[in-house]
Here is the input.
Amino acid sequence: MSEFPKNIFLIGFMGTGKTSLGKKIALKIQRKFIDLDSYIETEMKMSIADLFKKYGENEFRIIERDSLSKLIENNQQIISCGGGTPLFKNNMELMLSNGCVVYIESSIGKLFHRLKRNRIKRPLIADLNDEELLVFIKTKLNERNIVYKKAHLIHNTDDSKEVLIENIQKLNIELFKL
Ligand code: S3P
Here is the structure.
C-alpha cells in the first residue's frame, strides 16, 4: 500500500507559505497538489477578493466548505487550505477524519514581514495599515491557534521539508496502521 494513502491537509495563517511548501512536498512524494483558494477561483471563475466583495465573508466560507467537502471525496492529495478554512463549522474535524492535518506554524514577526508585502489579494487585510496589520496578526493568530493546534502535526517553517515528510510518514503508520 502507498505510504501516503489519505489526504494531507496543510493549514495555518495567511503568509506561512502553505502553497509553496505543499507544491514542493507533492513533487517529492508524487502526489496531486491542490490549493483550495485556487480551486475555488477556478470553480467560481472569480478571484477570492471579488468573491468577498460580491458575497461577503460568510457566503465565501460556505463556498469554501462546499469545495473542501468535494475535494475530500478523493484520496492521496495534498491540499493547501486558506488560513480561515479550519475555523468554519466542523471543517477541522472533517479534515482530521479524512487524512493528516499539518499546521504550518510561523512567528508573528515572519508573518508580518511576508504579509506586509502581500496584502492586496487578501481581502481581510487589504485595507489595513502596518500597525493595524500587526494587531490583526497577533489577535487572529491567538484566536485561531486554538483550532490550528488540534492538527495531527505541527511543522515550524524553520524546519526542513524532509523532516516534515518523515513526520508525515510516521504519523501515517500510526494513524492508518501501515
Ligand atoms: C483567509 C486566507 C486566505 C483566503 C482568504 C481568507 C483567512 O488564504 O482564503 O483571503 O481567513 O485567513 P491564504 O491563507 O492562502 O492566504
In short: Residues 168 and 174 are 10 Å apart (CA to CA). The helical segments are 18-29, 36-44, 48-71, 91-96, 108-117, 130-148, 161-176. The radius of gyration is 16 Å.
